[in-house]
Amino acid sequence: MEPGEVILLVVLALVVIMVITTVAKAVRIVPQATSVIVERLGRYSRTLEPGLHFLVPFVDRPRAVVDLREQVVSFPPQPVITSDNLVVNIDTVIYFQPTDPKAAVYEIYNYIQGIEQLTVTTLRNVIGSLDLEQTLTSRDQINGQLRGVLDEATGRWGIRVNRVELKAIDPPASVQDSMEKQMRAERDRRAAILNAEGVKQSQILTAEGDKQAAILRAEGQAQSAVLKAQGESKAILQVFDAIHRGDADPKLLAYQYLQMLPQIANGTSSKMWIVPTELTAALGSISGALGGDVQQAPSGSSASSGAAARPREGEIAENPFENTQLEDPNEALERARQEAAGASAEADADARRVSGASGSTLPPAPPTQPLGYDKPQQ
């Protein structure tokens, strides 16, 4: 190959390479959510939006590519002094988005570094007016103040601050230890209070239960005593009326007296017992009855009156207690509580009423005398 042909081939290769380079520089494809700042001869020319664009080779030059998506930047912990002279380390997270690519490129050299420094200074101003307790409990307030200051300052940079978050607030180790002890003491105090309240409620409920049980037990005993007293009262009235109707003679009384003597002497603590002088007369009456020596009582004696009081053969004796019924326990208890002082008088009134219904008249209570006492013959 001749030298002229070689030179021609080299020239053609250089032209092809230059054409390819020129076309590559003239065609620019911009991705979505991205802007390209183009300078022409060193001056701002235009901002390329997403799509296909043609540039003038060797005249137009891309200056910067700006990402328009929201960005998240986490800054390292910054020491901040609170109003009560405590140093705390605070981590912050900034959410921002470029809104004006031209301002973000030409108004500030590095907008991320500018946002970081502005966040640190604003954070120190805000935290410096708060104590530790307020700092730990006022995160929303601090976030709002930081966002307001940063959004106002970064607006001319073409940056919009969407959100500011305090990721961590770390007090000194000694303060953390004191806070843990304080919280532990507070929880122990609350636990002691709750325990005391539980014991108090338990004791109150137990006392209420004991009180109600004692009241119910006393009411039951009172009802039992009232019913027992009523039964004994009616039994005494029936026995007394039966004795009065039967007109018991001294023989029967002496026999009953002899039956009671073993019971009198049956006590374990009884060392001696007294035999009344009327026992001889009672035994004489019994022996006379067993021997068949029956004396006729005078016509005016009490025996004849007792015989007249007995029902004749074939007749049915009137029972004055036939319609007698025990009262309801609750009513009896209420009446016993209200009329306790007049219980004896009420018993006497019942006795008189029963005697009047049977048609007999109860004699007054005789003076105290031993069993076996003979009535005087009239």
TrEMBL record:
It is a single-pass membrane protein. InterPro entries: Band7/mec-2_domain, Band_7, Band_7/SPFH_dom_sf, Band_7/stomatin-like_CS, Stomatin_HflK_fam. Belongs to the band 7/mec-2 family. It comes from Kineosporia corallincola. Residues 297-309 have a biased composition (Low complexity). The keyword Transferase does not apply. Transmembrane segments: none annotated. Keywords: Membrane, Transmembrane, Transmembrane helix. Residues 293-378 are annotated as: Disordered. PANTHER family: STOMATIN-LIKE PROTEIN 2, MITOCHONDRIAL. Residues 25-183 form the Band domain. This is SPFH/Band 7/PHB domain protein. It is found in: Membrane. Pfam families: Band_7. Its main location: membrane. The keyword Signal does not apply.
